[in-house]
Write a structure and sequence with these properties.
By secondary structure, the protein is an alpha/beta fold. Helix content is 32%, strand content 15%.
Length: 301
């Protein structure tokens, strides 16, 4: 079974108040992969005496839909992880905070306009073509921040010490895309700073984002953006679910949708049990109530 060692987690998190978050994007319906993440987030928060923040990551204003947000929250309520009184934030309501963070970032880092498209360079690493061109900031141009070649370190509570070079992985990071939308990397880093997140629990498909978010967070902290928690937070990247074709479950395909299972008469406890089994947290898909997900990781002290 794939689960973190609880005693080791407690040792490494000693004297650190645990604040984590569940942060779906409203670009589709909730599926079993999201339920796996919810099990890790709420399960570990409960046994570590931590708290969970709910964040709707709707920075993508083209694909995000109000009906998907409504469905996500309703399914989470049906599963039992949240109730109607649970507070949450939307990234689309935080434009002023992101604009302020960007203004502060300009004081300590090189932020510049870029008119390059992804098709204009090979691979994932941006070669810095616009870094010294002095382009004006206008519609149709992205905003990037320059990254040097520093190696970033982070602590993953399942994988151990992480070392990543954002400059080699992605090059200068996009903060605003060519349509004027805040990017995932920028919005999530600002939110984690401002919300004092101390433990980021997410799927291993986002592992490569860690170094660039750590780097961006360091720059933002140097610009006096952030709350009282230390930076970087601890991370825990858990395995993700795949379909029969070995492709990651996706909202865009409706894979293993919670709403579809609900309509078929599957109970909330059965959905959680199926997700836990698919993630290797249990030997079989026995029903699990939402109150009991912490027991998958150990007993509360």
């Amino acid at each position: 079974m794939v689960r973190p060692n609880l005693n080791e987690l407690r040792r490494r998190l000693q004297d650190t108040p645990v604040t984590t978050r569940f942060a779906p994007s409203p670009t589709g319906l909730l599926h079993l992969g999201h339920v796996v993440n919810a099990i890790y987030v709420w399960g570990l928060a409960r046994v570590l005496d931590g708290s969970v923040l709910v964040r709707i990551e709707d920075h993508d204003r083209i694909r995000s839909r109000p009906e998907f947000e409504h469905s996500l929250l309703e399914d989470l309520q049906w599963l039992g992880f949240v109730d109607p009184s649970t507070p949450f934030l939307r990234q689309q309501d935080r434009h002023a905070l992101y604009a302020d963070a960007l203004a502060r970032l300009r004081r300590v880092a090189h932020v510049y306009a870029c008119d390059c498209s992804r098709s204009s360079f090979e691979g994932e690493t941006y070669p810095g073509r616009c870094r010294d061109r002095g382009l004006s900031e206008e519609p149709g141009r992205a905003l990037r921040v320059e990254f040097d070649d520093t190696i970033e370190m982070a602590d993953d509570l399942m994988l151990g010490a992480l070392e990543q070079s954002p400059a080699l992985q992605c090059g200068d990071l996009v903060l605003k895309d060519r349509d004027g939308h805040w990017t995932y990397q920028f919005a999530v880093t600002v939110d984690d700073l401002l919300q004092d997140v101390t433990l980021v629990i997410r799927g291993a498909d986002l592992l490569s984002s860690t170094g660039r978010q750590v780097r961006l967070g360091r720059l933002l902290r140097g610009a006096d953006v952030g709350g009282s928690a230390s930076w970087p937070p601890r991370y825990l990247h858990h395995p993700v679910l795949f379909d029969e074709n070995r492709k990651k479950l996706s909202k865009s395909t409706g894979a293993a949708g919670v709403r579809r299972l609900r309509d078929a008469g599957v109970t909330a406890a059965e959905v959680i049990g199926r997700a836990a089994a698919a993630a290797g947290l249990t030997d079989g898909p026995a029903p699990i109530n939402h109150q009991d997900v912490g027991r998958l990781f150990g007993e509360r002290r």
